[in-house]
Structures are given as structure tokens and as C-alpha cells.
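stage 2 :: seqdesign
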């Protein structure tokens, strides 16, 4: 399909399950704005003509107010405001609550490209192949500056912020080729930071998957980092020599921190535990875990998070609350497998080392070094 650059559609076609909701709300706002704008302008002209000065120094009739009129102009704006709020709340709720059965794809933005990886390992740059009629969730972050991932035909977009994860989801309703755009100015070549979503029938998508070299999946890459390149397994593997708590079952569980705060161990929490472990210390343990900030790339972080999630099952919805008796060390990963409540003075995500010390197991040959413009935001809540 050839791109037609001579014409930009005012309204891209609707190609997702909630595109019509976004358009409905948009046109509702346009209709209200147009109605009152035209009405007010016409009223101005009407009253200008009807009540223009006819007699010099004439005294106008006194008006003492109208209860019905005041009630009317109070009720109408209230109803309009409530309907706008309810419409926006419904659209927002539907757009930013990904279904549990969504196919997850990892996205890393950088100046000036989008790098995407499927759960099965296939990698793409500035392109995304997905099946029609399937829920798709994007887990996104950036290596450098603020970006914004948008697919106008799906009527969805989200800022991609350094140092944290952003999420969007969609369900494409018709096969085709749809534009990806960066909607946040991100530097000199911002206008060129785009790509295409290819929506395919399930059979064609399966053929595409089988015809592309997948390499390591995010979970496999994370396991390799965890067990070999970063040496995390030296503390977290099972056996008599284990010095760190097991990570099985931690994802999506409730973790009790020092000071009494309870947080959910989601992707953001795991990421922050790797990069800024001292910011969220699990109750009952000392802040002795080192930081891996600057030692792993954003893509490696995505893989590590995916691997730790897999230890609990990708869709785990654990709700157990972990306290001082069975929580983990600094880095905020608890130990759900410790039934005796014994404290383990070791770190939870890496080997036990003094904070600030260098990590001898960190990979030194990174092909794509990460710019750390967003380091000061990492771990922020």
C-alpha cells in the first residue's frame, strides 16, 4: 500500500472497538460548542437591532429577575456538564483498563524510532503486526526523552515517559494498514518518528509469526540476564546456598513496606526495585540491595520484568498481603515462600552487595547504551 502524502484525512477511519465512542464524544462536544457559539452570535445581532437606541436619554424598564429563567440557565449547563463528564469517564475507563486476556507487546521508544517485541520473541522496528479481533496490550517505555505513541485509526494514544511504564490497549476491527505517530515533540526528527500497524487475519498473522525468526522471547532473555549475565541467581536460586528470597508468586501481590505503606507488586514496582531499591524497602529488611541504574538498558529491564512476572504466571492476580514476617529485602520483593516468618537480610532482586558498590556481573558489551535523561524520574511514584 502506497502512502498518499498529498492528502491528510480530517477523520481517519474507525478501526478499533472503541473508536466510535471517541468519535461520538468528540462530535457531541463539537455540536454543543457550535450550538452555543451560533446561538450567542445570533442573539447579539438580534438584540442589537431590536433594542438599539430609539429615543435620546430614554429610561429603560426595570427588570426584577425571573426565577424560571434563572432555573433554566442553571439546569441546562449542569446537564451538559454531567453528560460530558460521564461520556469522558466511560471512554477513559474503556481505553485504559486492558483486558486480562490481552496479547502483550513490549515497546521501547528512542530518538527517532519505535522498537517492538512480541511475547514470542519477534522484533520489529516502526512496524507492528497484529491479528484482527484480538485484544492487544502495549507496555511502553523510552530510552531518552518523552514520546507519545498514537494510532489515530484506533483513536488511542499515550505518553511514553522516561523511567516508567505506560500502557494502552486496543482491538482492531478490520484488516488494513494504519499509521503509527509520535504525538509529542521529541527533537529534530520528531516528524519522522512514525510507522505502521498491519492488522491481519488470524491465519495470515500465524503465517507471519512462523516466517519470522523469533530469537529469545522477553522471558527467555530475562532468564538469561537473571541467571547468567547479572548473576541474580547466585542469591535467588533455591537450595541451601540461597541468600535472597524466592521471587515466585510476588507479581501482583500486596507488599508491606517500612512505615506501614502497602503497595502492589506490578511492573512499575519491579522496575523501581531494580533501579532504585532503597526507595521502597520491605518491612523487616535492611536497605542493602545495590542499584542497577545505568547497568541495564531499557530493553533488558523489560526482559527482566517479563521474567519475574513469569515466575508468578503471566496473568497472576495474587492478593496476599506480605508483611514483616515473610517479606523480602530492600528492593521491595517479598518472600511468599517463607512460612516461618524468618527474616532474610539479603537483597531481593540481585546478589547481596553494599549499596553503591559496582556490580562485577553487569554486562559490559551493550550494543545500544541507554541515555539516562530520565534517571531522576526512575522510581518516582
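stage 2 :: out
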Amino acid at each position: 500500500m502506497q502512502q498518499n502524502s498529498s492528502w491528510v484525512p480530517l477523520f481517519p477511519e474507525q478501526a478499533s472497538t472503541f473508536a466510535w465512542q471517541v468519535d461520538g464524544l468528540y462530535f457531541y462536544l463539537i455540536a454543543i460548542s457550535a450550538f452555543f457559539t451560533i446561538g450567542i452570535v445570533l442573539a447579539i445581532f438580534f438584540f442589537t437591532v431590536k433594542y438599539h437606541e430609539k429615543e435620546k436619554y430614554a429610561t429603560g424598564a426595570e427588570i426584577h429577575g425571573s426565577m424560571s429563567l434563572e432555573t433554566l440557565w442553571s439546569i441546562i449547563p449542569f446537564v451538559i456538564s454531567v453528560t460530558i463528564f460521564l461520556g469522558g469517564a466511560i471512554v477513559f475507563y474503556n481505553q485504559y483498563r486492558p483486558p486480562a486476556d490481552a496479547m502483550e507487546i513490549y515497546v521501547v521508544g528512542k530518538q527517532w524510532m519505535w522498537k517492538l517485541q512480541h511475547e514470542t520473541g519477534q522484533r520489529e522496528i516502526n512496524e507492528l503486526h497484529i491479528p484482527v479481533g484480538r485484544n492487544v496490550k502495549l507496555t511502553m517505555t523510552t530510552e531518552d526523552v518523552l514520546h507519545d505513541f498514537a494510532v489515530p485509526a484506533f483513536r488511542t494514544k499515550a505518553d511514553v515517559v522516561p523511567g516508567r511504564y505506560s500502557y494502552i490497549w486496543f482491538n482492531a476491527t478490520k484488516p488494513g494498514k494504519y499509521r503509527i505517530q509520535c504525538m509529542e515533540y521529541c527533537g529534530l526528527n520528531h516528524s519522522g518518528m512514525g510507522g505502521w500497524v498491519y492488522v491481519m487475519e488470524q491465519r495470515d498473522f500465524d503465517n507471519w509469526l512462523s516466517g519470522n525468526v523469533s530469537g529469545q522471547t522477553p522471558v527467555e532473555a530475562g532468564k538469561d540476564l537473571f541467571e547468567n549475565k547479572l548473576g541474580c541467581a547466585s542469591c535467588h536460586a533455591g537450595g541451601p546456598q540461597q541468600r535472597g528470597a524466592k521471587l515466585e508468586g510476588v507479581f501482583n501481590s500486596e507488599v508491606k513496606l517500612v512505615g506501614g505503606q502497602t503497595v502492589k507488586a506490578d511492573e512499575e514496582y519491579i522496575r523501581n526495585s531494580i533501579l532504585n531499591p532503597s526507595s521502597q524497602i520491605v518491612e523487616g529488611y535492611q536497605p542493602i540491595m545495590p542499584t542497577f541504574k545505568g547497568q541495564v538498558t531499557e530493553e533488558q529491564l523489560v526482559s527482566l520484568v517479563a521474567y519475574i512476572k513469569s515466575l508468578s504466571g503471566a496473568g497472576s492476580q495474587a492478593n496476599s498481603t506480605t508483611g514483616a514476617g515473610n517479606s523480602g529485602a530492600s528492593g521491595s520483593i517479598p518472600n511468599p515462600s517463607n512460612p516461618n516468618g524468618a527474616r532474610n537480610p539479603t537483597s531481593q532482586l540481585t546478589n547481596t552487595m553494599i549499596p553503591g558498590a559496582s556490580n562485577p556481573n553487569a554486562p559490559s558489551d551493550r550494543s545500544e547504551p541507554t541515555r539516562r535523561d530520565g534517571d531522576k524520574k526512575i522510581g518516582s511514584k
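stage 3 :: structure notes
- The two ends are 43 Å apart (CA to CA).
- Residues 1-6, 315-381 have pLDDT under 50 and may be disordered.
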